[in-house]
Specification:
The chain is α+β, with helices and mostly antiparallel strands. Helix content is 43%, strand content 17%. The protein contains 6 helices and 6 strands; from the N terminus they run αααββββαββαα. The chain has a 4-stranded mixed β-sheet. A hairpin with a 3-residue loop joins strand 3 and strand 4.
Protein backbone atom coordinates (compact mmCIF):
# COMPACT_ATOMS: atom_id res chain seq x y z
CA UNK A 1 0.00 0.00 0.00
CA UNK A 2 2.73 2.51 0.88
CA UNK A 3 4.97 1.72 -2.06
CA UNK A 4 4.53 4.95 -3.98
CA UNK A 5 6.66 8.04 -3.65
CA UNK A 6 6.03 11.70 -2.98
CA UNK A 7 6.48 12.69 -6.61
CA UNK A 8 3.61 10.40 -7.55
CA UNK A 9 1.40 12.04 -4.93
CA UNK A 10 2.42 15.45 -6.29
CA UNK A 11 1.76 14.49 -9.91
CA UNK A 12 -1.65 13.03 -9.00
CA UNK A 13 -2.83 16.59 -8.37
CA UNK A 14 -1.07 18.09 -11.38
CA UNK A 15 -1.60 15.68 -14.27
CA UNK A 16 -2.69 12.04 -14.47
CA UNK A 17 -0.72 11.51 -17.70
CA UNK A 18 2.46 12.83 -16.09
CA UNK A 19 1.80 10.55 -13.10
CA UNK A 20 1.39 7.54 -15.39
CA UNK A 21 4.51 8.33 -17.46
CA UNK A 22 6.67 8.94 -14.38
CA UNK A 23 5.36 5.75 -12.75
CA UNK A 24 6.32 3.76 -15.86
CA UNK A 25 9.90 5.06 -15.70
CA UNK A 26 9.50 7.62 -18.44
CA UNK A 27 11.45 10.33 -16.66
CA UNK A 28 12.06 13.63 -18.40
CA UNK A 29 12.57 15.94 -15.39
CA UNK A 30 16.36 15.81 -15.70
CA UNK A 31 16.02 17.83 -18.93
CA UNK A 32 13.82 20.52 -17.36
CA UNK A 33 15.21 23.97 -16.59
CA UNK A 34 12.37 24.50 -14.10
CA UNK A 35 13.37 21.37 -12.15
CA UNK A 36 17.00 22.55 -12.19
CA UNK A 37 15.91 25.95 -10.82
CA UNK A 38 14.04 24.22 -7.99
CA UNK A 39 17.11 22.22 -7.04
CA UNK A 40 19.23 25.36 -7.12
CA UNK A 41 16.70 27.15 -4.88
CA UNK A 42 17.00 24.33 -2.35
CA UNK A 43 20.79 24.49 -2.38
CA UNK A 44 20.89 28.30 -2.11
CA UNK A 45 18.21 28.72 0.55
CA UNK A 46 19.06 25.90 2.92
CA UNK A 47 22.78 25.29 2.43
CA UNK A 48 23.33 23.57 5.78
CA UNK A 49 20.40 21.21 5.43
CA UNK A 50 20.66 17.87 3.68
CA UNK A 51 18.04 15.72 1.99
CA UNK A 52 16.89 12.43 3.47
CA UNK A 53 15.99 9.48 1.27
CA UNK A 54 13.96 6.91 3.19
CA UNK A 55 13.31 3.41 1.84
CA UNK A 56 14.12 4.63 -1.70
CA UNK A 57 10.61 6.18 -1.73
CA UNK A 58 10.47 9.25 0.44
CA UNK A 59 12.85 12.10 -0.35
CA UNK A 60 12.47 14.76 2.32
CA UNK A 61 14.18 18.09 1.67
CA UNK A 62 15.33 18.33 5.28
CA UNK A 63 14.49 17.13 8.77
CA UNK A 64 14.94 18.79 12.15
CA UNK A 65 14.57 16.94 15.41
CA UNK A 66 13.43 18.93 18.44
CA UNK A 67 10.53 17.99 20.71
CA UNK A 68 9.07 16.51 17.55
CA UNK A 69 10.29 15.40 14.15
CA UNK A 70 9.97 18.33 11.75
CA UNK A 71 9.94 17.55 8.07
CA UNK A 72 10.41 20.36 5.59
CA UNK A 73 9.68 20.62 1.91
CA UNK A 74 11.05 23.49 -0.15
CA UNK A 75 8.95 24.78 -3.01
CA UNK A 76 9.51 27.54 -5.53
CA UNK A 77 5.97 28.95 -5.69
CA UNK A 78 2.56 28.39 -4.14
CA UNK A 79 0.88 27.89 -7.51
CA UNK A 80 0.36 24.17 -6.96
CA UNK A 81 -0.01 24.30 -3.22
CA UNK A 82 -2.55 21.47 -2.97
CA UNK A 83 -0.05 19.07 -4.55
CA UNK A 84 2.67 20.36 -2.19
CA UNK A 85 0.45 19.89 0.86
CA UNK A 86 -0.50 16.33 -0.03
CA UNK A 87 3.08 15.40 -0.86
CA UNK A 88 4.12 16.58 2.60
CA UNK A 89 1.10 14.90 4.23
CA UNK A 90 2.10 11.65 2.52
CA UNK A 91 5.61 11.90 3.95
CA UNK A 92 4.15 12.44 7.41
CA UNK A 93 1.69 9.56 6.92
CA UNK A 94 4.49 7.29 5.70
CA UNK A 95 6.74 8.06 8.67
CA UNK A 96 3.86 7.55 11.09
CA UNK A 97 2.78 4.22 9.61
CA UNK A 98 6.04 2.70 8.34
CA UNK A 99 8.53 4.08 10.87
CA UNK A 100 6.23 4.43 13.89
CA UNK A 101 7.07 8.11 14.37
CA UNK A 102 4.20 9.71 16.22
CA UNK A 103 5.11 13.33 16.89
CA UNK A 104 5.59 14.74 13.38
CA UNK A 105 5.24 18.32 12.20
CA UNK A 106 5.31 19.34 8.56
CA UNK A 107 6.42 22.60 6.98
CA UNK A 108 6.22 23.93 3.44
CA UNK A 109 8.97 26.46 2.86
CA UNK A 110 8.65 29.06 0.11
CA UNK A 111 11.99 30.90 0.27
CA UNK A 112 11.28 33.18 -2.70
CA UNK A 113 8.41 34.82 -0.81
CA UNK A 114 9.86 34.18 2.66
CA UNK A 115 6.87 32.14 3.75
CA UNK A 116 6.64 28.99 5.83
CA UNK A 117 3.36 27.10 6.17
CA UNK A 118 2.66 24.55 8.89
CA UNK A 119 0.91 21.37 7.80
CA UNK A 120 -0.80 19.01 10.23
CA UNK A 121 -1.65 15.37 9.57
CA UNK A 122 -5.24 14.70 10.66
CA UNK A 123 -7.42 11.60 10.59
CA UNK A 124 -9.35 13.19 7.73
CA UNK A 125 -6.10 13.69 5.77
CA UNK A 126 -5.18 10.06 6.38
CA UNK A 127 -8.52 8.89 4.96
CA UNK A 128 -8.00 11.17 1.94
CA UNK A 129 -4.48 9.82 1.44
CA UNK A 130 -5.68 6.22 1.46
CA UNK A 131 -8.17 7.08 -1.31
CA UNK A 132 -5.49 9.00 -3.24
CA UNK A 133 -3.07 6.07 -2.99
CA UNK A 134 -5.79 3.72 -4.24
CA UNK A 135 -6.55 6.10 -7.15
CA UNK A 136 -2.85 6.36 -8.03
CA UNK A 137 -2.48 2.59 -8.09
CA UNK A 138 -5.57 2.40 -10.31
CA UNK A 139 -4.17 5.02 -12.74
CA UNK A 140 -0.80 3.26 -12.90
CA UNK A 141 -2.34 -0.14 -13.62
CA UNK A 142 -4.50 1.05 -16.52
CA UNK A 143 -3.41 2.22 -19.99
CA UNK A 144 -1.89 5.70 -20.19
CA UNK A 145 -4.49 8.44 -19.77
CA UNK A 146 -4.80 10.75 -22.75
CA UNK A 147 -3.06 14.08 -22.18
CA UNK A 148 -5.36 17.01 -21.46
CA UNK A 149 -3.89 20.37 -22.33
CA UNK A 150 -3.96 22.93 -19.54
CA UNK A 151 -2.27 26.23 -18.74
CA UNK A 152 0.63 24.49 -16.98
CA UNK A 153 1.50 22.13 -19.84
CA UNK A 154 3.86 24.50 -21.65
CA UNK A 155 6.26 24.48 -18.67
CA UNK A 156 6.11 20.71 -18.17
CA UNK A 157 9.07 18.44 -18.91
CA UNK A 158 6.63 16.07 -20.66
CA UNK A 159 5.09 18.70 -22.96
CA UNK A 160 6.77 17.54 -26.19
CA UNK A 161 6.12 13.90 -25.34
CA UNK A 162 2.39 14.57 -24.88
CA UNK A 163 1.74 17.08 -27.65
CA UNK A 164 4.22 16.47 -30.50
Amino acid sequence: MLNINGTQINYYFICKTKLWLFSHNIRLEHESDIVALGKQLHEDSFKKEKEFLIDDLINIDFIKINDSVEIHEIKKTQKMEESHIYQLLYYMFYLKNKKDIKNIKGFLNYPNIRKKKTIELTEENEIDLLKIIENIEDIINKPMPMPKKSRICSKCAYFEFCFS
